[in-house]
Specification:
By secondary structure, the chain is an alpha/beta fold. It has twelve helices and ten strands. Strand 7 and strand 8 form a beta hairpin. Helix 2 crosses helix 3 and helix 6 runs parallel beside helix 7. The longest helix has 13 residues.
Length: 278
């Protein structure tokens, strides 16, 4: 993974201000470890022979007693987390190894900032919102507002969505992690959400909704003023170019226009994440 740390000030001057520094972030990510409560014996055997998913299905269908599972069954199996929330698409996460990819970065930022409120705009099946909510739960503080229009394939404004949030119950979907106290889902456009909750402020914002130039610029203009001083905004797919349906990817173009911010880039092959600090 390649990353870039830029401090861009007016007229070429480097701006010094307090906040998350590269070395602080690196230390935070390195020190963050899942609490290894440990597999039960049957969990270890199932995992050893590649049957953990089958074991999980038996438990969910009531064919095995849930008390036979450890807390790791619900919270610590990162491979299951990636698979269940479709984290392998665009985030550098690897199901086989349980590597959360960019998920570790979001968790590290939230762990460091300890925000009162987090905003996530867009997610196919909730991977980043789930990671952010878990980070808030780890902090014992904070709440994630997750906003997605729920567009299905072929609908205008769809950017990889499958209509998941209109076809499924979001509360039930996220309940496997026990993060109900730290996450609320709003199935609506970001514009409607901004209009409905005009006074909410955020310390961390993740933008992964409309990937057109006009769309990402709209979300930036809507929510950057609502970001607290020292807060951070992450933009997904800052290096993706080309056509998508009847639109063009434009996050890369908007990202290049941004100046006067602390800017952090993470590039992992075709996956890329850009982060700004206010």
């Amino acid at each position: 993974m390649v990353y870039n740390w830029q401090r861009l000030g007016g007229r070429g001057q480097t701006r010094q201000r307090s906040g998350v520094r590269q070395e602080q972030l690196t230390a935070t990510i390195s020190n963050m470890k899942l609490r290894k409560i440990g597999f039960s014996r049957i969990e270890r055997l199932a995992n050893l022979f590649g049957l953990y998913d089958a074991y999980h299905a038996f438990v969910e269908k009531g064919m095995l007693r849930k008390k036979m599972t450890s807390d790791l069954y619900r919270f610590g199996n990162t491979s299951y987390l990636i698979k269940y929330f479709n984290g392998s698409m665009g985030h550098g996460a690897i199901t086989k190894t349980g590597n959360l990819g960019f998920g570790f970065l979001h968790a590290g930022f939230i762990n460091t900032l300890n925000p009162e409120r987090v905003l996530c705009i867009g997610s196919r099946q909730g991977f980043i919102p789930a990671v952010c909510a878990l980070a808030c739960k780890y902090n014992r503080h904070g709440h994630v507002d997750f906003v997605d229009a729920g567009y299905d394939a072929g609908e205008p404004g769809n950017w990889g969505g499958t209509g998941f949030w209109k076809k499924n119950n979001p509360q039930e979907h996220f309940s496997v992690l026990g993060i109900g106290d730290h996450l609320t889902t709003y199935v609506m456009t970001s514009v409607d959400y901004a209009r409905k909750y005009p006074n909410r402020k955020y310390t961390y914002i993740y933008v992964d909704g409309d990937h057109s130039y006009a769309g990402v610029k709209k979300d930036f203009n809507l929510f950057w003023p609502r970001l607290t001083d020292g807060g951070m905004m992450a933009l997904h797919d800052i290096n993706t170019k080309g056509a998508y349906n009847d639109s063009e990817f434009g996050v890369w173009k908007f990202w290049k226009e941004l100046k006067g911010h602390h800017m952090l880039e993470f590039i992992d092959g075709v996956n890329a994440l850009g982060v700004l600090q206010k």
